[in-house]
Structures are given as C-alpha cells and as structure tokens.
Amino acid sequence: MKVKIPVLAVALLLPAIAFSQAVAPPPQPLHFVDGHWTPYDPPTDFPEGSTVHTVVRGDTLWDLAATYLGDPYLWPQIWERNPYIKDSHWIYPGDPIAIDVAVQEPPAEVEEVVPEETVTSEYVAPGGFDEPAIDEGEPRPLGSSADVYCFADLVQDESIYPFSITSAERIDFQDSFSEGDIVYIDGGIEQGVAAGDRFFVLTRIRELKRLVDDPKLGKVYSNESLGIVYSKIGQIKVLCAQENSAIAEITYACDPIDVGNVLQPFRPIPVPLVIEPDPSDRCDLPNGEPIGRIIYTRDDQIEIGGGWLVFVDLGAADGVYPGQFATIYRDNPVKGMPRLVLGELGLLTVEEHYSTAILTRGWASVYIGDWVEVK
After folding, report:
1. Residue 362: what pLDDT?
2. Could you tell me where the DSSP H helices lie in 263-315?
3. Residues 255, 153 share a domain
4. Cα separation, 70 vs 208, whole angstroms
C-alpha cells in the first residue's frame, strides 16, 4: 500500500526574530499573551521534566539547536517539537520553546555470531547501486551537509549574484584557491557588505534546456530554457570591508575557487530528517501523484547510480516538499508493457519549479530524462 510518509523535518530557511533576507513576511496579527506580543498561541503546560527555553531577542532555532543539542543542523527537531510555531523564520521574545529532544546515541556494537554455512556480503545491485542499510522506523538525515552545500542552483536571473571574487592575496602565485586563502570581492560598505558576512561561492556551468520526447529521435533538448546551472563550490567570510570592496577568507571549499566566481548571501540549508517509506518495487503501479523528470545530474554525469545528486523538474508549485521520496522509472520500449521501475530518490531541497534530490535505491543505471513519480 502506498502512503505518504510524514517528514520529521524539512529544509527551510534559517528561523529568526528579525532576518533581513527572510523569504516570508512575519505572521499576523500579533496579540498580547502572558506579558509579550506574539502571533501564535504558545502552550502554557509542558510535560514534567521538559526543558523549556524562553525566547529572548536575537534567538534563532539554529542557535538553540547548537546550544542545547550540540549541532545547529538539528534545529528542525526543535521546530517539530513546537508545532504552534507556524513559520520557522519567526520566533518571538517571551515564547516558550520546548527542547526535550536529544541526539540519538548510536546503539552499542554487538558482535554477531554467524553460522559457518551462512555467507554474508554487502549487496551491490547490477546497475551500480549500493543498497543502503535502513533502520526501519528510525528518522535519519536524507543526505550529508555536502549534498546541500556542494551541489548546484538553477537560476532564472543571473543578476541575483551581486558580487564576485576579483582578486586574491596570492594571485601572483596561484591560479585557484581553497580553504584558508584570502580573496578580495567587489562589494563593500556602500553595497551593504560588513565584517562577518558570509557568502556562497558559485561558478557558472551552463544553460539548461527542457527535454522532450521526439517520436523519431527519442529524448532531445528543446529550445525552452529552464534556467542557468550554477555550481556551489565554497563559502567565504568577510574579514573587513572598505568603501567599495572587501577582504574575505575562504572558509569552505568543495572545488577550486577562482577569480571571477560569483557570490550569493549565505543561508543555512538543513538536511531533512526522514523515515524511510516502503522501498520502490518493480511491481509498483502508477499512483496518480505528481510526475516529473530528471533534468540535470551532478557534473553532467551521463550514467548515474546510488548517492548521486540530480535536479528534478518538480517544485513547490507542484506541491512537493523536502524529505519526500519518488519512484524512478522509464517507459517500456515495448508498447503495452508495464513501465520499467529503476529505483528511488529523495528530495533534499525544494524551490518553486525544481528540486535537488539524491538517489537512494535502485537496481539499474539512471539517466537524464528518466521519469520520477512522487510516492
């Protein structure tokens, strides 16, 4: 039976009391509750033994997760525990935050005795997928931080990147730069840049065209543009700013960073926590949920397998959200025969018209143009 699996945490932007780059306006209307103003209806009673934090000015769920759970990327667990907070961008001084969640300790290793006649091995599917070990019923991160910080964006307007790297401290000796190197950017105090600001570093890959099915040629690229692919290759932090320029340090590098790479204001991108649904199966029938296509693969890899990152042309406008899973399939070349189910992917981040995803299961190679159906 196919059912939608609730996601324990979805990848939204950094929650904040007042965050200048928030994508949504503050909830309205405010009302006076227990001595403070809030748009919510916070609870007044908590289970005995709960840890309850009262929000003060400047708090964010990101910071609270770092303080109480030891890892800021666990902030969705706190949000999940406090469902009265309708928008994670906005928490209000005086609101109570329950933080009686904790990082799950790994189980103690138990040496397993295997009978002599039993032979075990790690399963490797014929198509190149490694079948992952699944703890049924236990939430787990869908991917790693590198999966969301070192992949790519699909943008419609390249002017969204306000600044670029124009020089570097060791430009006379190096062509490319990495963590710890000092770079210079073409934005300063007059453009709103200040010491401590953080930016993603990106490099332009190519324009992405929509795939269509041609009755004679098969899958071909049309003239319709889906946007420009920019690869995230690192992060920088501003050390000091001058009138129209600034000096920054490379704090994180996925790939070599070059003069000319563009910058985008940094925002945390948590990895969604999920409970695994039933695995996709060759016998799965179409379920009527949204259908899209794999439109881009990391590094333009032609043939991909487990753990690889892709774009799919399903987004928030199609009703999907981070942490959902989708079945990967291909039309059967023999007319009237069932579709060819290839595997499964999970949605890491969701934009308006596309999502980034990671391949999680499968038994055959996957290609650009293969279909995906939300589970």
Report:
1. 86
2. none
3. yes
4. 40
1 or 246, higher pLDDT: 246
> Do both 245 and 285 map to the same domain?
no
pLDDT at 121 over 70: no
Other residues' Cβ atoms within 10 Å of the Cβ of residue 282: 12
Q: Residue 225, SS3?
A: strand
Shared-domain flag, residues 197 and 277: no
Would you tell me how many other CB atoms lie within 10 Å of the CB of residue 1?
A: 3
Per-residue model confidence as pLDDT tens digits over 50-107: 889 999 988 888 888 888 888 776 777 788 788 888 877 788 999 999 886 543 333 3
Amino acid making up residue 290: P
Lowest mean pLDDT among 14-23, 141-150, 265-274: 14-23
Supply the pLDDT for residue 134.
44
Distance between alpha carbon 274 and the CA centroid of its chain, in Å? 13
**Other Cβ atoms closer than 10 A to 375:** 21
Structural domain including 90 reads 1-103
SS3 for 72? helix
Length of the chain: 375
- Judgement on whether residues 159 and 206 belong to the same structural domain of the protein: yes
pTM of the model: 0.66
Nearest to 373 by CA among 335, 342, 351, 350: 342
| DSSP code of residue 130 | B
Nearest in space to 355 (alpha carbons), one of 342, 369, 345: 345
Contact 344, 134 (CB under 8 A): no
- Residue 357 CA: distances (Å) to CA of 28, 48, 306: 34, 40, 11
Both 207 and 288 in a single domain? no
Q: How far apart are CA 375 and CA 366, in angstroms?
A: 18
